[in-house]
Amino acid sequence: MIFDKDTAKKTAEVLLQINAIKLSPQEPFTWASGWKSPIYCDNRIVLSFPTIRNYIRETMGKYIEKEYGKPDVIAGVATGAIGIGMLVAEYLGLPFIYVRPDAKGHGRKNQIEGFVESGQNVVVVEDLISTGKSSLNAVKALKEANINVKGMVAIFTYGFEIAEVNFKEENIRLNTLSNYESLLEEALETNYISEKELKTLSEWNTNPSEWTGI
After folding, report:
1. What is the pTM of this model?
2. I want to staple 186 with a disulfide (CB 3.0 to 4.6 A). Which of 12, 75, 116, 151 is the partner?
3. Is 120 helix (H, G, I), strand (E, B) or coil?
4. Burial (Cβ within 10 Å: 0-12, 13-18, ≥19) of residue 102
5. Torsions phi, psi of 174, nearest 5?
6. Tens of pLDDT along the chain (214 residues)?
């Protein structure tokens, strides 16, 4: 799923550096879903750090061209991946569109914003993959508009089994710059977490919906 180990390690390093990812096994976060979690990821923070956003933009852009071939259009998933997706499109010199969770209830009632033609090839950009449900909702909208989705590229994935199942069922290829395993390795190496905290963080990842904390 990750493009390569070195990129995954470097990406984890910069995300921890700017606190885009926070690990707090002692005081877990509560997600919107109600899940208790020892990790919180907000990759939109990347946009506020020019050097790091350029690293993400260029790395993602190069891998898209290498692994998928140059598509006709880059699509971002609203709202978290609009900024990153637009930067990647600019780097590749390509048109950009974004996909809303649902069609607007007024005006032109678009779900897909921007210009894209039926039959064009699109690579979808995401900031974060959890269960994959919202990401694949965007893919569904594109397919319904007769757009050829070549795959999806994201900054980070939690690596949940449910996400792998969901992407496999929809026959959508997913690649990420980094993942949960690489994050924990980097965090341990840099003493961001202890061996005890590593055990807690690993346990959460195997069954996040049932995890209740330390």
Report:
1. 0.94
2. 12
3. coil
4. exposed
5. -125, 130
6. 899 999 999 999 999 999 999 999 889 999 888 889 999 999 999 999 999 999 999 999 999 999 999 999 999 999 999 999 999 999 999 999 999 998 766 667 799 999 999 999 999 999 999 999 999 999 999 999 999 999 999 999 999 999 999 999 999 999 999 999 999 999 999 999 999 999 999 999 998 988 987 6
